[in-house]
Structure formats: structure tokens, C-alpha cells
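Slides due. Your pick:
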Amino acid sequence: MEKKQTSEAVQTHNKPQRAWYVLRAISGKEAKVKEVLDGAIKNSDLGNYVFQVLIPTEKVLTIKNGKKVVKEKNLYSGYVFVECILVGEVQHELVNTTNVIDFLKGRGKDAKPEPLRESEVMRMLGTADDINENAEDAANDFMVGEIVKINDGAFSGFHGKITDVLPEKKKIRIVVKIFDRETPMELEYSKVERE
């Protein structure tokens, strides 16, 4: 009876597991690859084996026409991350997707796609989240004396001057003129926009 349990354990161990793999794509075409694969996941049997397609991005703050603009930039240019079970035709289908060059593989002539280690996946996902959070904070680096427009609530459309910035609360204090009287308010970053 012990031998049977051992052989079952070996069979389970050899069964292809769900893991993250890296596809090499033509640089600049990563979003197109993701779009094609997402469509195939929804509309074919590929969805039974491919669970997520990810392009880690970071938000970059730029100034365009005097205004701050947040743009997304690929963290790993030329790479698309795919969570899947590589069985049967799945590998063939992924490699033959338009704009895909091949899997990122180990060295050697007969190298097979190597799954990312759990630590690499966690670092990749964590890094993308950390960078995006920091960029959102940077995009909202309001300054005392700056004029903002309220875009939500009862005072939507009113303009005010920033008197205090509270980054830990993600809020600002402004003074708004209402009926020729200065009225102080404390608002979340999301409730105001730059003029």
C-alpha cells in the first residue's frame, strides 16, 4: 500500500504546475501581445491553461504644456509575463502569438521555458505596486500657494488657494472665497485638480 501512495505522489509531482513564465516580445508590442492573449483566453480553450497576462508598468510623472501628466512606462521592455500551465499545445500557441519571439529559456540547445521562482514573482508584482503608489503620491505633490479647482461635492467648480499640504492623509487645506468671505476647507487630493 505504501508503494502505491509513493507512485501517486510522483505522478502528482511530475504533473505540470501552474507557474509564471516570461515571453520575449518585440519591444513596443507588449500591449498588443497582451491584448491578443487576453482575447484568446476569453474566446478559446486557452483560458483553461492561461490565467493571467501581465505587463508590469510604472507611472512616470512628466510635464507637458506646463501641466503634470502621469504616463505608464513598461518596467521590463520586451517582456510579457504569463501565468499558465504549459501542457500540450499551450506552449506552441503562446510562442506563435503575433509579436512574440519566444519564451525566456535556460541555456543550452534543448532548453525549456523556465518558470519564475516565487520570490521573483512576488518581487515583480510588489515592485510594480510600490512604484505605482509612489508615482501617484508624486503626481499629487501639491504646493502651498498653488491654486486648485474643486471637482467634487457641494463646492464643485470653486477655486481655492492651498494653505497646507497633508501628504500622510493625502489631503490639502485650501481657502475658498464664498460670498466674498474666505472659507477654509480640508479636501482629499482626488477632490481637487490643478488649474
User: Anything to note?
Assistant: The radius of gyration is 25 Å. The first strand starts at residue 19 and ends at 25. Residues 77 and 95 are 18 Å apart (CA to CA). DSSP finds four helices and eleven strands in the chain.
